[in-house]
Amino acid sequence: IVNDNSPELRDKVVLDVNWLTSHIFGIALAPANFPRSLRSDRASGMVEKRELQNTFPECPLEQLIELFVRFEVCLPYDEHYLICDNYLFPSHLEQDRTNLDDVWPRFDDGLCVVGRIVECTNKMDSLPGSFFPKFQIRLLRRFGHMSPVWYGGIKIADDAVEILATLSSSLKSCEFLRMGPKGCEERCYASMKFIESLRDGLLDEVAGGVEFIHKALSIKMLHHKKFEGYSLKEVDELLHEVGPDASVVLEKCGIREMAVEVMYCGIRRYVHPLDHISHLTMRERKS
């Protein structure tokens, strides 16, 4: 607490908390049916720069956006520039998407899938609030703006293959799937490596002090619409010791599956018992 004559306040603008809540944050976060609220594309959570200008004509645009970004109310679609054409407001996205039936992979004999889980090692930790919205933006910029996006989830098509990424409700883990028709195994796995690189770069950027466990998703549990997995490091070591015929067991679920399926989307040439080359990233090897 400082008084009006304090040197800390020189050349500073002090905002009244009640005014800030009711006239800025309240309007930005209000539902669309409120008399005065910030209009957005509810499908993508995007708000145009001109809409911000029209909604807050009394506020200097750059300072308004800087305020929103600092409090993680929104993120610029172009991460390199504070002022750009569109902004992602995570709170404007569909919030209650517990039913993923319309985005879940439809398993049949013609589908190949590879997936990963990253979760906090320490149960007291959680992923920073900015991580998943930034991940969504980077996927949208890479693969296209018009994709299903919701709070804690995104599904994007990349030609014949698709990406599904979800954030757990506890904010302690994220799941990443790459799926496509049979014959796209190489592409699915290569794309998963791209997703892992994108994910790990962002984790280093926003969660440098948090330790994570990296897992390979169980394909059989995905059939039951559940995210369970095996330690990537342990699967990698097993493939090194046994080779492409190694199997992994998820004891708590009572299932067994081929290690090469969960690790490499079934691509056996990535595994050789006498000359196994690890495809783990440095972050995954340390986990």
Automatic annotation (TrEMBL):
Enzyme class (EC, first level): transferase
InterPro entries, per database record: NOL4/NOL4L
Domain of life assignment: Eukaryota
UniProt keyword terms in alphabetical order: Transferase
Transferase keyword on record: yes
Record carries keyword Transferase: yes
Listed GO MF terms: protein serine/threonine kinase activity
EC number(s) reported in the record: 2.7.11.1
PANTHER family, sorted: DEATH DOMAIN-CONTAINING PROTEIN
Protein name in UniProt: Unconventional myosin-XVI
Organism: Desmophyllum pertusum
Lineage: Eukaryota, Metazoa, Cnidaria, Anthozoa, Hexacorallia
